[in-house]
């Protein structure tokens, strides 16, 4: 496909939604198509210009939404001039810097699952000097990888990293409805009645929290499945019932399971896992 046609298609992809939300089982014996990347865009310096935030996302800086804020914060310069307008367009021939560092389109797209240990924050850097989860990957990958979604500093388990802005945007969008499963150990007993309450929904500080499913595994151990991913959602639901959280581990994101991956270790997703995640997005 010519570069110009590819870019036009790429820029329109964000407006498309699958007709229905398939289950992971549906794809077990399916032939998966390889996901298109920005490779054809970097073949020539005369490529059709694209919006700056899209360019940054394909350079592996962050998701498109996060790149928009980076631009608005005045952290991006193009050909020596600071740019804060989201409508700015650039091509591979332009010199683009973020925080004074040059960024370039990356042909190799990475999709990595990390088992985040407690004590690490999910951000590109931390002004308080705390350990950053992305640092656990720096020795293994030369690409700029950023987290898709978050886990708070005290939570552990599955979190995805990528340099594919379109992939990150689709999974992070509120409409994606990707399930995330957690195993939680609590300080107090969680009754079946409390579990049903969480499934029905609770309001905390004028914010409504609701899980898809809550199973009591032991008196002080539950399995909980979310699709919303609001900040500290599980902890706040438990706190609303005077229940403390001793340990919170995310064990599944969509069709991707943590399995036997040890804390601090990582692995790359298979092409099939990546495609099923995208197909699970609404």
This entry's quaternary arrangement is single chain
Strand content: 25-35%
Write down the Rg. 20 Å
Uncertain runs with pLDDT below 50, 5 residues or more? 6-46
In angstroms, what separates the terminal alpha carbons? 27 Å
Secondary-structure element string = HEHHEEEEEEEEEEHEHEEEEHEEEH
Structural class assignment: alpha+beta
Secondary structure: helix percent: 10-25%
* Overall 3D shape: elongated
According to DSSP, the number of beta strands is: 19
The average pLDDT value, as a whole number, equals 83
Report on the biggest sheet.
9 strands, mixed
Number of helices: 7
Q: Would you kindly provide a written description of the structure presented here, covering whatever features stand out?
A:
The protein has seven helices and 19 strands. The protein is α+β, with helices and mostly antiparallel strands. Strand 5 (about 95-100) and strand 6 (about 100) form a beta hairpin. Helix 2 (about 50-60) crosses helix 3. The protein is elongated, with a radius of gyration of 20 Å.
Quick description:
The chain has 282 residues and is an alpha+beta fold. The protein has helices at 3-12, 52-58, 64-72, 165-172, 192-200, 233-240, 271-280; strands at 50-51, 76-78, 81-82, 89-90, 96-98, 101-102, 111-116, 120-121, 131-132, 146-148, 156-162, 180-186, 202-204, 207-209, 213-218, 221-226, 245-253, 256-257, 266-268.
Using brief descriptors, characterize the structure shown.
single chain; 282 residues; alpha+beta; nine-stranded mixed beta sheet; four-stranded antiparallel beta sheet; 7 helices; 19 strands
């Amino acid at each position: 496909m010519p570069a110009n046609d590819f870019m036009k298609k790429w820029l329109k992809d964000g407006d498309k939604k699958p007709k229905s939300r398939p289950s992971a089982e549906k794809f077990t014996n399916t032939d998966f198509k390889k996901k298109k990347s920005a490779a054809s865009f970097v073949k020539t310096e005369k490529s059709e210009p694209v919006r700056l935030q899209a360019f940054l996302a394909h350079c592996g800086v962050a998701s498109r939404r996060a790149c928009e804020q980076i631009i608005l914060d005045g952290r991006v310069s193009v050909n020596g001039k600071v740019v804060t307008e989201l409508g700015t367009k650039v091509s591979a021939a332009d010199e683009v810097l973020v925080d004074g560092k040059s960024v370039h389109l990356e042909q190799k797209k990475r999709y990595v699952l990390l088992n985040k240990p407690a004590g690490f924050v999910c951000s590109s850097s931390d002004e308080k000097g705390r350990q950053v989860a992305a640092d656990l990957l720096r020795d293994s990958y030369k690409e700029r990888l950023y987290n898709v979604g978050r886990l708070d500093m005290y939570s552990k388990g599955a979190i995805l990293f990528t340099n594919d802005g379109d992939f990150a945007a689709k999974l992070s969008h509120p409409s994606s409805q990707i399930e995330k499963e957690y195993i939680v150990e609590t300080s107090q007993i969680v009754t079946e009645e409390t579990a049903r309450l969480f499934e029905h929904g609770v309001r905390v500080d004028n914010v409504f929290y609701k899980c898809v499913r809550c199973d009591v595994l032991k008196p002080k151990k539950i399995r909980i499945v979310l699709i919303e991913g609001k900040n500290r959602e599980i902890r706040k639901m438990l706190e609303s019932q005077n229940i403390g959280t001793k340990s919170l581990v995310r064990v599944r994101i969509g069709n991707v399971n943590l399995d036997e991956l040890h804390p601090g270790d990582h692995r790359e997703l298979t092409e099939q896992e990546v495609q099923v995640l995208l197909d699970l997005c609404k």
